[in-house]
Amino acid sequence: MRILLLVGFCLKSERIISVKRILLSIAVLLSMVGFCKAAEQAEKEVKSDSIMERNSLTNGFFGLNNRLADSGLELRLSATQIYQQNTRGGISTHRKAGRFTGSYDLELTADLQKLLGIEGGRFYILTESSFSNGIDGPSVGSYFGVNGDGEGNRSIMVTEMWYEQSAFDDNLRVRVGKLDLTGGFDHHNCPVAFDCSMYANNENNQFLNSALINNPTIPFPDRGLGVAAYLHPMSSWYLSAGAADAKADSRETGFNTTFDGQSDFFYIFETGITPKITSAKGPLQGAYRIGLWVDGQNKQKFSDGENHRNDTGFYTTCDQMLWKEKDEPNDSQGLGGFFRAGFANGKFDDVTDFWSIGLQYQGLFEDRDNDVLAFAMAQGVFTEQPNAGYSSDNETVFETYYNIAVAPWLHISPDVQYIANPGGDKSINDAVVVGVRVQMVF
User: In this structure, what DSSP letter does residue 199 have?
Assistant: First the structure.
């Protein structure tokens, strides 16, 4: 009981503290069931693998994950630490504020078929903490943001908590709860998520600039209450749709903004094909998507300041493996590329047109099969409405990184970015940002 009270205090909200306690209690109870089942099983031998060969630093919490796997539970603790410095242009090259940022993720995944006998059921909870917003405000002035992991100063908070039900051999998935519409379990085909990319979707191990993580013309809400569905009617074609609280705040459960007063929802619809192109080294996986979104909350029109609802836009995303080193189905070494584009209404939205393009090569150097070298560029065109306040019509980003797989649980990524016309302000010189990211799985 003391543990539940402590968790509830960390997430305290005067209006909805009882609801939060209930949600967290569900997660704790699921964990307790898994621990009990694991305790009933015979102790399994924990292999003393070399520390450089482990998938996590502690070897699955010193063997705990191995004992819980048959019960359907998995725990994952990871940390991302980033250092960045603006070396040229921007607002300032001398301010030290925001140069060092960090985030910590604790995840619990429950296979409810193993745990409770619910066929196709899955439960997920993510708690996060972070510090610092990064160097954009004091040093760079970028509209997009040079650090997609800079989430500000946050104590431990439950940012995702949802239930997923699959059916028809996993060809239908429905997810409900506190959602992140931009992310999914499988980052290669991104079920139950939108605007995904195999090569530019994750700030922890891919590009850092926010323009190369998701399409900035899509006004994705913060993580909050919602529902999303994914349907795979044919082997290479899918449909997905989602609805979520447009005013969500990831620091809260979302019940206050979803059900109190006027409810504003964000809707998104996507369809795509996932063909495999035949080559001498085996099939080359691709994904080609188009989507439409509707933002139901009030937005001010730049020209007259009046509020309007149901802002609408559309987007497209393309991924394609271009060349493989080996004729092995599960081998990902080789060259891949991506392209994104988006369009929004310039009467209400700051960025009206957007595109990005990039390449990634895994295993470029001999004996470094898991290292990744990538380069990309992105450009957002700002609205021409005079009241919007942009003196330059675009911001353009160039970024390259090299992700060094020191061990399966430790990745170090030097990163360089060039930002032209930061913030659409002609008075700010082009900026050059250098940095390094360290990502660890405990």
Answer: S
Do 380 and 356 contact (CB within 8 A), yes or no? Answer: no
Give the Cα separation of 203 and 192 in Å (integer). Answer: 19
Q: Which CATH superfamily is domain 71-441 in?
A: Carbohydrate-selective porin OprB (2.40.160.180)
Distance, in Å, from the CA atom of 286 to the CA atom of 154, rounded to the nearest integer, reads 37
In this model, does residue 46 exceed pLDDT 70?
no
Dump pLDDT digits (tens) for 59-117.
988 888 888 888 899 999 999 999 999 999 999 999 999 999 999 999 999 999 999 99
CA distance 72 to 31: 10
R_g of the chain, CA atoms, integer Å: 22
Least confident of 44-58, 129-143, 370-384: 44-58
pLDDT tens per residue, range 275-321? 999 888 889 999 999 999 999 888 888 777 778 888 999 999 999 99
What residue ranges do the domains of the chain occupy?
Answer: 71-441
Distance CA 46, CA 61 (A): 11
- Can you tell me the distance from the alpha carbon of 343 to that of 357, in angstroms, rounded to the nearest whole number? 16
Scan for tokens 């992991």, then name that residue: 149
Per-residue pLDDT at 7: 34
- Distance CA(293)–CA(279), nearest Å, equals 36
Mean of all residue pLDDT scores within the chain: 86
- What is residue 416's predicted lDDT score, i.e. its pLDDT? 98
Q: What is the mean pLDDT of residues 329-342?
A: 93
Buried b (16+ CB within 10 A) or exposed e, 263-291: ebbbbbbbebebeeeeeeebebbbbbbeb
Instruction: Return the half-sphere exposure (C-beta side, CA atoms, 13 A cut-off) of residue 279.
Output: 20
- Distances 151 to 82, 226, 231, 305, 348 between C-alpha atoms, Å: 12, 21, 32, 30, 25
Three-state DSSP class for residue 164:
strand
Burial 28-67 (b: 16+ CB within 10 A, else e): eebbebbeebbeeeeeeeeeeeeeeebebbebbbeebbbb
**Residue 71 burial (CB count, 10 A):** 22
Q: Give the C-alpha separation, 11 to 253, whole Å.
A: 9
145 contacts: CB under 8 Å, gap ≥ 6: 134, 136, 209, 210, 211
